[in-house]
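Reproducibility note. Readers wishing to regenerate the assembly model reported in the main text can use the exact inputs given here. Chain order matters: entities are listed in the order in which they were concatenated for prediction.
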Amino acid sequence: MTDIIVAEGGRTVGAPPSVHRRNWAWLGLVPFLGFLFLFLVVPAISVFSGALKDNDGQFSFVSMRAAFTGQNLDAFWFSVRFSAGSALVGVVIGTLLAYAAATATRPRWLRNLVTAFSGVAANMGGLPLAFAFLTLLGKQGVLTKVLKEAGWDLYAGDFGLGEVPGLIVVYSYFNIPLMVLITLPAIDGLKQSWREACANLGGTTWTYWRRVGLPVLAPSLLGGFLLLFANSFSAYATARILTQNSLIVPLRIAFYLGGDINAGEDAIGFALAAWMIVVMVVCMSIYWVARRRAERWRS
Amino acid sequence: MSDHSIHVAMPELEGPPTAPTAMAPRPVGKPRVRFARLVPNTVMIVCGVFFVLPLLTLARFSLQNVPTILLGSSTLFKKWSLVGLTKAFSDPDFWPALRLSLQLAAGTVVLTLGLLLPTAIWVHMRLPRARAFIEFLTVLPYMIPAIALVAGIFVIKPHARWFLNSDLSLIPFYVVLALPFTYRSIDAGLRAIDLKTLVDASRGLGAGWLTTLRTVVMPNMRTSIISASFLTAAVVIGEFTIADTLLKETLPRFQATFVGREPQAGYGLNLLALLLTIGLFVTLSVLTKKRDYKRNSFTRQLEKATKMTSDTTP
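Running the prediction on these inputs yields the following structure tokens for the assembly.
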């Protein structure tokens, strides 16, 4: 907290420090901070307080451990797999698409179309998306039928929209556009002069990307990966419509919260949520650091 | 300079040796553009298909009453109608769900603006040092996703039934969910207008605080207030996680259950919801583009002005 204030304060504060006035000004933040405390901090802490109790209400790690063993561990592993897969697809295709849009010259509206559509699609998770994919790739989906008639029966194996490959395809619908929004500014930041400098020194296109382009983009790519991972890992609505698969952590949490389960088992739901918050905090913290590094090259 | 053109000429050795202009420093990469565009263009086309197909099949399912099994060249153009889109409106559960969602959206917008506008203005005017801290707080909801937030609500539930039993108790949590978007939008609006100068000028001319807010700050903030409201409305109208786990019968809950009863009309309703969201975001992007334009011209004028003063005051 103090770090951030110092970093920002170095530039912006011009007024001579007046202890009296400063103390008074902080009071203006009380309504906002109070609101956040009540409706964000208290629930977040409650998750941990609910997770760190045993049946008798005593402090214990039993639930936290139970949430990380057996079927629950399988669920985490499953969720990590499809989230990482979908983030990877999002990073690669999203970056390529952003590059294609940034360098396209021919139809002038193309770039605007890509950014505008990305803004929409990145926020299009949730129910309609899930239903749209059911009509495309569900058991009765149009593409499923077309592929079957072409000789490829999707559902002959263990394909399903609730399995890893299916989830990767569906989540790519909002992950790719999100990645476009993240990397487009970074790609715009690649200066033509760097490319020329590289060529002047005898480098090929390959050298340019390996020695200049990708290293400069690396923080954005890493940050993007983490953001997409977090995005997929915590998505509930889309998964809920697509599948009953209880290996998806958010669905599992909801199952423990709302289900008719034995007393004390709801603590496992809280513990799963607590682990999820831990995963999110780790991802977002690294994302934050990566973003700061990525901004270094922008001017 | 001449040194450089020699190096540039190096890759040209592969080209036709008869080109005498090879020594001129041409923009690098230009000669091979045709080939270089192959990968980006392919990516663009594949993505275009991927992003449009699900929407088309959703539209087909909503508008054409032919099961996929029977779909073929002979049935492709049969039984299209708009019935699938309107049927939901005659369901008795639809209107209460829509009403609740609109109430939640309105409440969330009001609470968001009431909370964020004064805070953001205060931070810009009096506490610029706290800006990074506030910004950090507003992205906290990214770390506590909706499903984890709802787990927290379940822990508190036994102690706060009087509050959580009300459907409208979702409002503050929706404010929290939308916070990363809304605060950024308002903050960007404030950054664009050089608030301090405007307020100082207004106060210097004798206006009180309220007059300043009403006649100087608010009109300049109009676009960012509207876009913050749109974003909030879009988030609330599409929110499913919290409503579903707390069993509040909002529009998305209805969208999910109605499909089970009336598949075609259910998909039609989801198509409408999708179009509504797209409409909101397109309006939003048009609005922000205007603001960026305004902001740029403002900055340009400011730069011109400062240049002029610095020219005359050496």
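We highlight two features of this model. The domain at 32-295 of chain A is CATH 1.10.3720.10 (MetI-like fold). Residues 30 and 220 of chain A are 35 Å apart (CA to CA).
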